[in-house]
Inverse folding.
């Protein structure tokens, strides 16, 4: 007889909150479904991102368990969910087109809940899968060991979390992440939600934001913020979000440029660092947006943005 593994950890060992979330449909015991919330604050009707495999499982579950739904996947991957006529005479339909990474934004047709939060009974297999998802960023030596008959479910949970968070099969060269947290401790707060911060472009997800050296920013990357300048009395540099994100078009800085921004930099910022300076973009009025190459930017890499229409 196998034992049920412990419930998933709420945070990583360094107290960072999980980027993925384990969902169920409220009061059903279904799941756990490994999803990626697209907002830091979500309600029970908020849509979340799921892989094709999880979307298929959700669709099978809501059909099999008499939740009065029908579903179909078309040849191009589009998912159609519909209430049956017995439940909804209006025949409500939701059509979900996968994003460029094959993920489905699903929600609004039933109440989502955090899997395991209601102490509902679950099987050892469900718990092993859930724990694998929760520990998807852990190295092999830290991972929880399971009996042989549960190990494959734990591995599946890890793989599903990697897929939905784009942590798997993503080329290193297109997703730079070159900041050493030991040499450069950083604190990244959630992006503020207020009238002073415009929403990110459609399809641009906060979960894809990462810190990189400004010199590593590439054309098409979406620049969403930076960090407080280094200071001898401040150990950890804190994120500073921009009210308007912008698409980078980096170019070498022209030290002879006569725009106001460049004149200010020459007068007050001293010589360029060894790694150089760059112009991240040109404003409409011709002003340069200048970064030192060793500054730290917060970006969404172009490879994680939706393809242009």
């Amino acid at each position: 007889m196998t034992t049920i593994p412990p419930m998933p950890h709420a945070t990583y060992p360094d107290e960072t909150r999980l980027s993925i979330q384990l969902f169920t449909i409220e009061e059903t015991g279904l799941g756990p479904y490994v999803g990626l919330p697209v907002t830091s604050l979500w309600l029970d009707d908020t849509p979340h991102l799921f892989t094709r495999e999880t979307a298929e499982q959700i669709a099978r579950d809501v059909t099999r368990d008499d939740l009065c739904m029908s579903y179909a996947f078309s040849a191009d991957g589009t998912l159609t969910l519909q209430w049956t006529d017995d439940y909804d005479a209006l025949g409500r339909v939701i059509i979900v087109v996968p994003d460029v990474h094959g993920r489905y934004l699903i929600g609004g047709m039933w109440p989502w809940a955090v899997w395991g939060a209601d102490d509902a009974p679950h099987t050892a297999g469900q718990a092993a899968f859930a724990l694998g998802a929760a520990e998807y960023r852990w190295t092999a030596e830290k991972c929880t060991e399971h009996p042989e008959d549960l190990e494959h479910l734990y591995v599946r949970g890890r793989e599903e979390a990697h897929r939905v968070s784009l942590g798997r099969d993503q080329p290193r060269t297109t997703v730079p992440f070159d900041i050493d947290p030991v040499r450069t401790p950083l604190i990244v707060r959630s992006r503020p939600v207020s009238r002073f911060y415009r929403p990110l472009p459609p399809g641009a997800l906060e979960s894809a934001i990462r810190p990189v050296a400004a010199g590593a920013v590439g054309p098409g990357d979406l620049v969403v913020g930076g960090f407080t300048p280094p200071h001898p009395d401040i150990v950890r540099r804190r994120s500073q979000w921009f009210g308007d994100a912008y698409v980078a078009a980096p170019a070498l800085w022209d030290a002879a440029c006569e725009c106001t921004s460049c004149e200010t930099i020459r007068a007050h910022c001293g010589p360029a660092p060894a790694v150089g300076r760059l112009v991240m973009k040109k404003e409409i009025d011709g002003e340069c947006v200048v970064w030192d190459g060793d500054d730290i930017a917060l970006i969404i890499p172009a490879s994680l943005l939706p393809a242009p229409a």
Remarks:
- The chain is about 15% helix and 25% strand.
- Residues 172-304 form one domain.
- The chain has two domains: 21-164, 172-304.
- Residues 148-164 form the longest helix (17 residues).
